[in-house]
Amino acid sequence: METILRPVVVIGGSVVLALLAGWLLDLLLRRADSRHDETPLWGLLRHCRVPFQLVLCSGLLLSFHKQAELFGAYSDGIRQTLLLAVIASMAWLLVRISAAVVETAFARYAAVAEDPARVRRVRTQVTLIQRVVTAAVVVVAIAAMLLTFPAMRAVGASMLASAGIVGIVAGIAAQSTLGNLFAGLQIAFGDTVRIGDTVVVDGEWGKVEEITLTFLAVRTWDERRVTMPVSYFTGKPFENWSCGGTEITGAVYLHLDHSAPIELLREHLLEFLRAHPAWDGRRASLLVTGTSPTTIEVRALVTAKDSDDVWTLRCAVREELIAWLCAEHPYALPRVATGPSASPPWAARSGTGAPVPGAARAAEAGRRAPRESAPLETPELPDSPEAGSAPDGAGGGTS
Hints:
- The chain is of the alpha+beta class.
- Helix content is 55%, strand content 13%.
- The protein has helices spanning 2-35, 41-45, 49-68, 75-112, 116-147, 150-161, 163-173, 175-190, 232-235, 262-274, 307-328, 357-368; strands at residues 198-201, 204-211, 215-220, 225-229, 239-240, 248-256, 284-291, 296-304.
- The strands form two sheets. Strands 4-3-2-1-5 form a five-stranded antiparallel sheet. It has a three-stranded antiparallel sheet with strand order 6-8-7, with helices on one face.
- Mean pLDDT is 75; it is low at 350-399.
């Protein structure tokens, strides 16, 4: 009977004590969280309940597993397993505690900070710091677990003698990984790109969604994720529309007819912008920036507080100006001329010495026709806009 009760008491007691301690810890943290609303620390520490229970349970079993007298032939193996469980659960608990502390520090800073760009910078830094701490804890935990094996301790002592050669070989083999690691630290403290920044990389426009020690994820406007190594952002140029402020200027281009009422169009643009919520009021202009034989190029500049608003404002301005021109000034829209061409100015001047097409054809017909005694009459010249301003006798009299 004792051989049955002993392991039941040891194992069951360890599990019950661990569950009871976890419940008490969660109760205390909930009360502390309700009393201190100014900080989220106590609420975040509640996520440490499960790793805390595992640490306590595995520690109790490691301490009293011999008293249980269970699996006597495999006692060493059971002890080794429990020791590994203690190390792993302690690493998990440390990661959870560090994450709660870092998140609390950032939340308290973001609550009092006024500069959104600086908040994103701190967010990027604390995120990468948390990842570095997590990686360090995992590496130390794995090393501690390996050192629990006697054979690994002997191997470790022999490897110390060749640590320099191994380090050189590992550095060459992991050159890309190490480069991304240091690039991630450079991004965290160099303030070149931050979580939440609007960037344009390789023609892709989007917002930085995640930064790790090895890669950076950009969420594009159509909800795709572009993943790139962080070393790209330290070795190649890219556009950061949020660096130095989120305000941005957008341009809208229209191709109109030469007769377009530019001044009226400019006044309507300002009137429309004053009523649009996306315009921040900093700048607005409308200018003719180019011309061609058939159209003119009109550029409207508008400003907004961020890239999302400027995109919305550009689309709204483009739609509004085109609709207003269609309704009020349809002649200002570009069109293809299909009417007959006007006579050149020299066609109405017979005294300039230039050939007159109608008279030339009549003269040619007279040369080919039989000669008669009656003189030929010069055909009447077509009217010309400049005929009234021609010198006396140049308006098309008889020869």
